[in-house]
Here is the input.
Amino acid sequence: MKKSPGAVARLFGPSQNDEFADLLLSLANVGVECAAHFRATDGQDLRGIIDFERRADKLVDQIHELLDNAFIMRFDLPDAMRLTDEIDDVIDGMRGAAAHIDIYKQYLSNLRPEARELIIAGERSIQALRNLIEMLGDRKLSLSKARDLARIVNEAESDADQIIARAERGLVAEFSGPGASMLKFVALERLYAMLEEMTDDAKRCGKLIISLARKEA
Here is the structure.
């Protein structure tokens, strides 16, 4: 009987598979730490966020090198590469939001409640994503468990959608009159969009892991 690549990998390539899972979990942990720091500082510490991004970039380089030189992997190489890059995008998104806050600091030095709500939703989605990624170290992915964890990511993303819709309605009411500051509007509207994108990025990662679990089911 012909073995699937995943079965062969479990027989002959456990070290590379384990290393990939460990590195990816380390990358996810950087994301969790970065999200916690972003929340604690209201995104005002650009230099600190960049430090997290640089740590993530080093891990991404290690993962790419591992995958480039892998013979047989448990997961398809394109799937593994895409998941790695999508997780990196989550962290890059926080760096982008922190840079935006820094650029528009005169308008964003004190974040509005809606922005803080979006930051909390983003952190929740990244924490749940980290738990999903930890499953990649299991001998076999549980589709039901992966769905349960992905549901937490999806709920955070849904909450973020509701928060940004409310925030945008408020911006329209506030800035539609004469004399309104367009720079302030741009600063706020773009920030809300960037913070909401954090949950979208996490949701895409969750979908990729669900896809991996389906292939092993």
